[in-house]
Design a protein that fits this description.
Blueprint: E1 5-7, H1 17-33, H2 48-52, E2 57-61, H3 64-71, E3 75-82, E4 92-93, E5 95-100, E6 118-120, E7 145-147, H4 151-159, E8 165-169, H5 170-179, E9 186-191, E10 195-196, E11 199-203, H6 210-224, E12 232-234
Parallel strand pairs: 1-2, 6-7, 6-8
Antiparallel strand pairs: 2-11, 3-11, 3-12, 4-10, 5-8, 5-9
Helix pairs in contact: 1-6
């Protein structure tokens, strides 16, 4: 039995957990061919930073901002998924800016004289918090923030009238349109600039395994990535994430 850990939680919802497990089965099959021991199942629902920093982490999925701001010397980069996000280069994504469906705002330009209440999934999030800096000044010191804990809960907050504006990861937004009825009660009024996609990482102790891990994930994505909207698995360099600083 392997004592290693694998987690692909960043775009995993209850509704698509089976598809993520299927992808993991395909990855695990490829790893077996390379004589690399791996856990039978993905780990779900654990505190993300605990997972990212676990010395037994074989494969994990990390938010870009925590990676570049505090994890890059503590973990090793493997690569990134290409979800084929519209208007973004391969391996990149953006944030969608949303407002209530009945709002008078039709674009982010309409916010210039307004100070809306803002739902954010986490102040440690590139897509949900730092992307807001493209729209608002001094967002770090804003008293208008409502921290919801997840992009899905930020959508709830907008739909329920608890907040007036949010930035949502574009890939999560696609999940919301498919699985979350409340997405019908909000409207997209803009998009952020493209940013490098969320990195897949491993513990530093596995740095010599990175070429094999990359190949295993790449091959598995070709077999089992389509149901998750993953087009390909692409290389990623540490320097790619400097743009987030």
């Amino acid at each position: 039995m392997s004592n290693t850990l694998a987690s692909l939680d960043m775009y995993c919802w209850p509704e698509n957990r089976g598809e993520w497990q299927n992808l993991w089965k395909a990855i695990r099959s490829e790893l077996s061919e390379l004589d690399i021991s791996s856990p039978s199942f993905l780990t779900f629902g654990q505190p993300l930073e605990d997972v990212w920093l676990d010395p037994n982490l074989l494969i994990g999925h990390c938010c870009g901002w925590p990676y570049v701001s505090k994890l890059r010397d503590k973990v090793t980069l493997i690569g990134r998924f290409n979800f084929g996000v519209e208007s973004c280069p391969p391996g990149h994504y953006n944030s969608v800016f949303i407002a209530p469906k009945n709002s008078e705002w039709r674009s982010v330009g309409d916010l210039s004289d307004n100070k809306p209440s803002i739902a954010v999934n986490s102040t440690d999030s590139q897509s949900g918090f730092r992307a807001l800096g493209e729209v608002f000044e001094n967002i770090e010191s804003s008293e208008r923030l409502i921290v919801t804990g997840s992009h899905r809960d930020s959508i709830y907050a907008i739909a329920n009238g608890e907040a007036e504006f949010a930035a949502i990861d574009a890939i999560t937004w696609e999940l919301a349109k498919e699985y979350e009825p409340m997405a019908e009660d909000v409207r997209v009024i803009g998009h952020s600039l493209p940013k490098p996609g969320l990195p897949l990482i491993t513990a530093n102790a596995n740095h010599e395994l990175v070429p094999q891990l990359f190949d295993a994930i790449r091959c598995a994505v070709d077999v089992a990535g389509k149901p998750l909207g993953i087009h390909r698995f692409l290389p990623a360099r540490d320097s790619d994430y400097e743009v987030l600083l």
